[in-house]
């Protein structure tokens, strides 16, 4: 085994990773209790703004930038609890140890876009939303708004998925087997676990229902397998999927077979029921045989437990109507205005439209939301044009599947609307070679990522 290189990997990114951890880069917004010493400041009114955006991710930053680009005098405030931004898209490339990718590739400073575009930013955690008073309560004070945009992202639903787990076990699992679908320290932990591992299997669990970026766990399997092969680590990447659904399934399976052999094992209808983080075992129900559901236990060296997803608690705080167990916001027709409250809009993971949750989709939705809000402020109406009721390739999602040569697959989604809801239809194209993967797709992956980062931060 390449022990020298692996030791270097363990220490090479410590300064950046530590910075991310200390900055608290974890976008899972669980309301923080305000201590008595800070209660007075938390109740103070900090000011009133024309537009307040909750969430400094792809959607929220795109809304703030877009509105300020329309009108430099427009008073826009972003509320974001983290001091720094960390990207989930492209983060799997870090786990694959691709050349030129480190934590510095993923982490960005909010100060740059604030200075460039001129919107305000309050680093605080939202604790309550009072729609009647049009106030957002935070750990640093109360912010009043005329228009509110929700772009808070997701949270994990450990409590409903694992009803027998107490709070201490959930905290322990978060520390040792992070989901890494929420930006920040989870990625630091998972990367460290992989860098520290010797021989053994890596288990990735797939959530049930709607979850952020459906191809992400399968791309992660590709990148972890790539890393294990580079480091000559013996073992498999085992994917426990509670269904047979798999985003970009034929493309991933073709790539796995041809690039990784039997290194990656995808197991359908395997529903995880428990984890023993001390013994390093996962227990699951094998439901692949309709006549006999069997409980099985397997051992792991590294576990990436991706829990079921739900809308960030900020959505529930707002009191807007939602559907499904995930908590998708009910939209006002083909709009990003909520049906419940005309002064509240939503973009990103939480929207109720039938469009895929991704960084690209959040950016597209944000641009439509900007048009709606700006026209409203100008006293005009705005709706998506019926005559051009299709947005071609509104979402393009790349997944890297191998290295040396670096290759990727991708899916495109056309968005359509009919006055009631925005829908999408996906297509996974093949390269000229007849394969799904190609080196040009990999270049397009990094070009897309660098481009969207420039758009948000330059």
Walk me through what this model shows.
The structure is a single chain. This protein is α/β, with parallel strands linked by helices. The chain has a domain at 14-155 and 310-383: FAD/NAD(P)-binding domain. The protein is 33% helix and 26% strand. The protein contains 15 helices and 23 strands. Strands 1, 2, 5, 6, 7, 8 and 20 form a seven-stranded mixed beta sheet that branches. A four-stranded parallel beta sheet has the order 12-11-10-16. A hairpin with a 7-residue loop joins strand 14 and strand 15. Helix 4 (58-70) packs parallel to helix 14. The longest helix has 19 residues, at 359-377. The protein is globular and about 60 Å long. It starts with a helix and ends with a helix. Residues 1-5 and 7-37 have low confidence and may be disordered.
Features:
about 450 residues; alpha/beta; FAD/NAD(P)-binding domain; 7-stranded mixed beta sheet; 4-stranded parallel beta sheet; 15 helices; about 35% helix; globular
Profile the largest sheet: 7 strands, mixed
State the helical fraction: 25-40%
Q: Might you state the CATH topology name of the domain at 14-155 and 310-383?
A: FAD/NAD(P)-binding domain
CATH first level of the domain at 14-155 and 310-383: Alpha Beta
Secondary structure class reads alpha/beta
Mean pLDDT: 91
- Uncertain spans: 1-5, 7-37
The CATH homologous superfamily of the domain at 14-155 and 310-383 is called FAD/NAD(P)-binding domain
């Amino acid at each position: 085994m390449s022990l020298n290189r692996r030791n270097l990997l363990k220490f090479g990114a410590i300064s950046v990773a530590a910075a991310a951890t200390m900055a608290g880069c974890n976008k899972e917004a669980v309301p923080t209790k305000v201590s008595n010493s800070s209660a007075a400041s938390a109740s103070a009114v900090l000011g009133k703004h024309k537009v307040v955006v909750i969430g400094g991710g792809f959607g929220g930053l795109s809304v703030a930038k877009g509105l300020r680009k329309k009108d430099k005098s427009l008073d826009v405030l972003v509320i974001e609890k983290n001091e720094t931004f960390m990207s989930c898209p492209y983060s799997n490339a870090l786990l694959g140890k691709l050349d030129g990718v480190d934590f510095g590739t993923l982490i960005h400073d909010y100060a740059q876009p604030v200075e460039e575009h001129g919107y305000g930013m309050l680093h605080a955690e939202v604790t309550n939303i009072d729609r009647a008073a049009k106030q957002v309560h935070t750990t640093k004070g109360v912010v009043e708004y005329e228009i509110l945009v929700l772009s808070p992202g997701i949270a994990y639903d450990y409590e409903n998925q694992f009803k027998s787990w107490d709070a201490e076990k959930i905290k322990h699992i978060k520390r040792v087997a992070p989901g890494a679908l929420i930006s920040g320290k989870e990625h630091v932990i998972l990367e460290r676990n992989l860098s520290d591992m010797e021989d053994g299997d890596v288990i990735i669990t797939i959530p049930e229902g709607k979850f952020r970026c459906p191809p992400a766990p399968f791309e992660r399997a590709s990148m972890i397998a790539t890393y294990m092969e580079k480091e000559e680590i013996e073992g498999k990447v085992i994917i426990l999927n509670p269904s047979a659904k798999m985003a970009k399934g034929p493309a991933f399976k073709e790539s796995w077979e041809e690039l990784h052999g039997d290194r990656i094992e995808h197991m359908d209808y395997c529903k995880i029921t428990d984890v023993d983080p001390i013994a390093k075992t996962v227990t699951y129900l094998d439901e692949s045989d309709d006549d006999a559901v069997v409980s099985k236990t397997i051992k792991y060296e590294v576990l990436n437990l991706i829990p079921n997803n739900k809308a960030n608690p900020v959505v529930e705080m707002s009191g807007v109507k939602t559907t499904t167990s995930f908590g998708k916001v009910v939209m006002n027709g083909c709009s990003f205005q909520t049906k419940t409250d005309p002064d509240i809009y939503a973009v990103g993971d939480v929207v109720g439209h039938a469009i895929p949750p991704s960084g690209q989709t959040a950016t597209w939705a944000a641009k439509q939301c900007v048009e709606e809000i700006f026209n409203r402020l100008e006293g005009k109406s705005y709706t998506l044009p019926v005559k051009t009721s299709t947005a071609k390739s509104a979402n393009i999602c790349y997944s890297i599947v191998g290295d040396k040569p670096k290759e990727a697959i991708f899916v495109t989604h056309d968005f359509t609307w009919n006055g009631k809801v925005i829908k999408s239809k996906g297509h996974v194209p093949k390269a000229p070679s007849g394969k799904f993967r190609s080196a040009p797709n990999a270049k397009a992956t990094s070009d897309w990522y660098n481009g969207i980062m420039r758009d948000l931060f330059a």
